[in-house]
Amino acid sequence: MKRIANISFIFLFSAFLASVLLITVWHGREKNYSSIENRSLEKAPTLTGESLRDGSWFSDWEAYLLDRAAGRDQLIRQDTLLRMNLLRQPVVNQVVVAENVLLPYYPFGNWDSVNIERSVADVADQFQALQAHIADHGGQFFYVGVPAQVGYYADSYPAYLEHGRDFFPALESAWAQALSDRSIPYVDMTAVYAQMGHPSGYYFTTDHHHTIRGALLTYQMLMDEISLRTGLTLPILREEDLTFVTLSNPMLGSRNRMLYGLYPTDEHLTYAEATVAIPFRRFDNGVEVAPSLFSLPPTSEEPTGYSVFMGGDIGETIIQTDRPELPNVLLVGESYTNAVETLLYASFNETRSLDLRFYGEQSLQDYINDYQPDVVILMRDEAHFIDYDTDALFR
């Protein structure tokens, strides 16, 4: 009887492990990204002679299965709840739970202040070459630098946590000087916000982006600079030209998403529409889509976030307003451009936007050759001034 019991236990335990494995593989086969953890999940490894010899094929399978383990999200959610509400930890899931704001956590030693000037010079040289290329095709180049959320709310970090308090100011100063030395027009929103005293309402507290107020100020500062530098008379949206709409939906920002939405907040998303409509056609990645600037949730109960603006990150978006008396513009950047795009189109005949993380058809240099825009804008947040993929510019 004891032998039968042992065999039964082994059989049942093996069946349990096999079922968990099968459920993991079945439910996780099409899951490639974790919106909660804001990262790509491990991919199924490819068997090669080398990976078999060094054992990496087996360890890669382990990482793949762990990322897709049945019930993994539920377990992490309960762990997050425990660490936030019972243990009161200041850092949970790489998010700093500060007073009234969620911020990114950076471990000590993550900052290399020594090589800032050299790194800045190398990247700025690339942009100087880009500026010359744009000028050769009849356009003018503008660089827009916006604060990262980590910089905007730097004073909200607990004093004992690292957050680049020395790194970012040194980087911003070196970057502004490098662009000035190369005569690259620079819209320095970090300096603008510093002069304003970092008022509330311009950056989300539970998401890492600027709000529509921050995007509007950035757009207006940029347009004023373009008008000054080019002499062009361009229509510029002011606050009185806009209708602001605040969604009643619960806001699930990128930081709170990493906490499974467990951080209590009364934050809501606001967008702005031109009061006098400007007809346009829109193309995403070469395909015409509905002429809309906002991806609104279907119900008022569904959580929403920054992807309301332009429907999130898209490789190439083209907005045509059929006003040939106005110039054409090309905006290059990442997610910070999304909210600005909902305003920028109003000032130009045709607005093209590229996110080079998702657009790989050709280099930016070749794109400019084909399109020959009158104005080219590159927008980056301060956390990415010097880690730009310059190969995407000139490959």
Main sheet properties:
8 strands, mixed
Whole-number mean pLDDT: 86
- Label the structural class: alpha/beta
- Provide the low-confidence segments as ranges: none
N-to-C order of helices and strands: HEEHHHEEEHEHHEHHEHEEEEEHEHEH
The helix content, as a percent range, equals: 25-40%
Number of domains: 3
Strand order of the largest sheet: 7-6-15-13-14-12-10-11
Q: How many helices?
A: 13
What is the total tally of β strands?
Answer: 15
Q: How would you describe the shape?
A: globular
Beta-sheet strand percentage? Answer: 15-25%
Care to describe what's here?
With 395 residues, the chain is an alpha/beta fold. The chain has three domains: 2-70, no CATH class; 74-104, no CATH class; 116-394, no CATH class. It is built from 13 helices and 15 strands. The strands form four sheets. Strands 7-6-15-13-14-12-10-11 form an eight-stranded mixed beta sheet, sandwiched between helices. Strands 3-4-5 form a three-stranded antiparallel beta sheet, covered by helices on one side.
